[in-house]
Design brief:
three-stranded antiparallel beta sheet; 10 helices
């Protein structure tokens, strides 16, 4: 009976803690609840449509929703509410709206906006990884604000490049077209040079493209993924650069920046259940 009673008491404490979290963070709880219900509704609709690929995307979305909470409970990392809500909305926007509802094709700039946000958030995560070491009293390492900002920027760009590698791999292996095509009207190619002199032959005013003698019905040349990849990397750079500047002033002013605190995860002291010295509480 004792193990059963112990489990019952732990469950009771967990329930009280959960209720307290709802009262303390009603906005975050509302966002989580609405998005989860929306994903479940979409999943039910896809089951009726027998679209099992979209069903799996919904299941993946629900799993990804639990990642921030899992990290907080198991890795003793405090994720600011602002960052957590943005991450959840980002997952929903990318998987449900972008893939299932085809916003990537039907909403201009949707993919660009998400990649810009990715650059910003990845820089925040990279910044926190370095800043946690920088603030830890047990380490004898102190990194300048410039170095921390550069590290955050490089971390974000690395994440962006790895993601583009993933998209390219999926396109080559499974023909998923994750790197969306772009219609352009001019090209320059050294392969078209009959003299093989490594000089590009420039063709402008392209109005159609044919494959195996069949006109594709587009008003130009069909670029396969290159423009999309480079655009994604450029906007990732913009997002990463913006947060790196914000992070620089955050470190320079010794963590007094209120805006940056909303995006920087911090370590929690296990014995006190509080953020480590020099970090901020949730806003």
């Amino acid at each position: 009976m004792l193990p059963f009673m112990a489990r019952k008491e732990r469950r009771k404490v967990h329930t009280l803690s959960f209720r307290e979290q709802i009262k303390k963070e009603p906005g975050k709880f509302a966002v989580y609840s609405l998005l989860r219900l929306s994903v479940i509704a979409v999943m039910v609709a896809q089951i009726f449509n027998r679209d099992w690929q979209n069903v799996m995307l919904c299941v993946l979305t629900l799993i990804l929703f639990t990642v921030p909470t899992f990290i907080e409970r198991n890795w003793h990392i405090d994720i600011p509410n602002t960052l957590e809500v943005i991450v959840i909305i980002f997952i929903y926007s990318a998987e449900v709206l972008g893939e299932i509802r085809a916003f990537y094709l039907n909403v201009p700039g949707w993919d660009t906006a998400l990649h810009t946000i990715t650059g910003f958030l990845s820089a925040a995560v990279g910044f926190s990884l370095v800043d946690i070491i920088n603030r830890n009293e047990n380490t004898k390492l102190y990194l300048s604000p410039v170095y921390v900002s550069i590290a955050a920027f490089c971390f974000s760009m690395t994440i962006g490049v790895i993601w583009e590698f993933f998209e390219f791999s999926m396109d080559r292996l499974f023909l998923l077209d994750m790197q969306k095509d772009t219609v352009i009207n001019s090209i320059g190619s050294v392969l078209l040079d009959p003299e093989k002199s490594n000089r590009p032959v420039i063709i402008t005013g392209i109005t159609s493209t044919a494959v195996n003698g069949v006109d594709l019905g587009i008003d130009g040349y069909l670029d396969i993924g290159l423009f999309d990849t480079m655009k994604d990397l450029f906007v990732t750079l913009i997002g990463a650069f913006c947060f790196s500047i914000i992070g620089f002033f955050y470190v320079k002013n010794r963590g007094k920046g209120k805006f940056a605190k909303r995006f920087i995860p911090t370590m929690i002291a296990k014995e006190k259940n509080l953020p480590i010295e020099g970090s901020s509480e949730k806003k």
